[in-house]
Structures are given as structure tokens and as C-alpha cells.
Amino acid sequence: MDVHKLLRKPHTAAQISALWTAFHASRSSGTGRGFLSASIPLSTYENLVRRAKKYSTFIVPLMREAQRTEALDSGDTQSSYEFFFMQWAFHSAPSIPLPSLLDEPLPSPPPAPEHPLATVLFTPLLEYKTRTTFATPHLVLTLYPDLARSHDLVLLRGDLTPSPSGEGRYLLRQQDAQLLALGMQRFYLADDTTTQSGERERAELLRVFNEKPSDFRWEELLKHADLTS
């Protein structure tokens, strides 16, 4: 995205969000496959960063399609899950490059970034246990704070890892990547002071996983596995 062009002419946060979404929807021959995109209010990003700096890792359950159990003849189904290990990392946000001499002058100097650039890696837990730092993340979220000061906006981009088989395939389905990104928000934006029991439970699970891992029970996590509700 041409930040200088955005700063030369007035753009609202809504207009920038629409441009960001349209750009990623045009990728992969107009299908948008392989990418996620979203825009986040600065206040929401600050809440995510505050929690993520305290609790930099977690696991998110991803519900797979229900599988019929051999033991049941009644037609009931039993859901299966895959756990994804989530890791946050923070980096100093690069300053916005100065425009070239051929560009129109900016009405004012671009504000220096004061918020960190964040990345979130999602790796299947089984693969992470097996290969640790050599494991391949299936989804990488990057949150860009370049427009945080000027527009109170942070842009999110998700990159799905291509499959070794090629042919436009990815290690993760598009809808599963969207659910993992939603799961990140549901747990890292959970308020432990709210009156809603489900939200308090998610905040407590995040705390226990990082502060008292021996007390963490993955069975409790499955109560919150339906990320669409």
C-alpha cells in the first residue's frame, strides 16, 4: 500500500480499510485465496498487544468436520479437533520511507511509529512438538501499525503457507485460517472482569496456560472450541 499517497490526500479509516480489503481480495487471480485481511481499531490492537506481551503463547482448538464413531450405531457423531500452537513476536515498526524527489510533497511529515509491528504464528501442535523451531507455521498474521497515529488504524494481513504440492493449494483451508484468526481475538481480548462467564473462562485459560501450565486442562479448552458462536 502506498502510504505516501494516502497521506497526501485525505482518507478516512473506512476508506483505507476498504482499499486494504479490495487489494487482498484481488490476489490469486481474483479469488483472494491464500490471504486474510482486516483492519483493527488502534484501541483493540493496544489491548491485544498488552495481553500478548504478557502471554506470548497459547493453543487454539480447531474443530474438524464431525466424524462418525464406530462404536455408535445411532447415527450420532463425535467432533474431532486439531490444536494449533500460537506464538506472538514483536518488532520495531520501520519508519515510513521519505518520498522520492519525483513525488508530490507531503502536507506534513509522516508521524514516527510508536507501536510495535506484531506477528502471530499458527503451527499444528503435533508438528511443533515433533520439530520445535523447525516446524512450519501454517498461518502467519502480521499487524502493521504504520497508520496507527494518523488514522487510529492497524492493518492485519494473514498469509497461508502454500502446500509443497503446489497447484494453488495451501497447508490450511481458507475458512480454517479465518477461524484461527478469530480464535486469537476471542482469547486475547477476553476480559477477566466481565460478568459473562464464557469470556472470563477464556481469559483464565490463557492465564493458566502461561503462568501455571501444570494446571492447564485441554478438556476445559474444548468448551470454547466452537469459534463461530
UniProtKB/TrEMBL annotation:
This is Uncharacterized protein. Its main location: mitochondrion. It is found in: Mitochondrion. GO terms for biological process: mitochondrial proton-transporting ATP synthase complex assembly. It comes from the Eukaryota. The keyword Protease does not apply. The lineage of its organism: Eukaryota, Fungi, Dikarya, Basidiomycota, Agaricomycotina. The keyword Electron transport does not apply. It comes from Phellinidium pouzarii. Keywords: Mitochondrion, Transit peptide. Transmembrane segments: none annotated. Belongs to the ATP11 family. One of its GO terms (cellular component) is mitochondrion.
